[in-house]
Amino acid sequence: MEEIVNRVAASKLEVFDLEDYYPAGRRVTLDISQWLDEGFLLREKDFRQQLKDHDWTQYQDAYVAVHCSTDAIVPAWAIILVTVHLSGYAKMVVEGNPGDVDTALYQQILPTLDYSVYTDKPVIIKGCSRKPVPVAAYVLAAQWLQPFAKSIMYGEACSAVPLYKKK
Predict the structure, then answer these.
(1) In total, how many domains does the chain have?
(2) Global pTM?
């Protein structure tokens, strides 16, 4: 009987796992509609007072996504003012949803990595993750890997989708 060889384990394939770079920390969504009259109308004086009275310590060391869940037309300064109140408490504030927080974090992290270890090697960007890695992070990773990698694939070694091959 012939010996079974795990060709995936024996290959020179390098795995780039975005989950390895996923920053730990609490993600919080802050909905500003709570400070709008009936969730839709921003009355500046009332809005400022409610921000002043709000307990901002609950956002200590959190990654905060600020958004408005209603169809209210919110002036840009309102989101900026909320951000000013969050500074000193939150690790990061973005306008949007929690996925936007993760995208912003990967935009900071990925440019700082040393991709030279992938020079002229076949690389697979691991596709399955237990953490909420946004699609934007995969897009960024492919861009950063491309100048170095011999080839780039996406998915798992047993069923990878080819994306790029150096000419």
Answers:
(1) 2
(2) 0.85
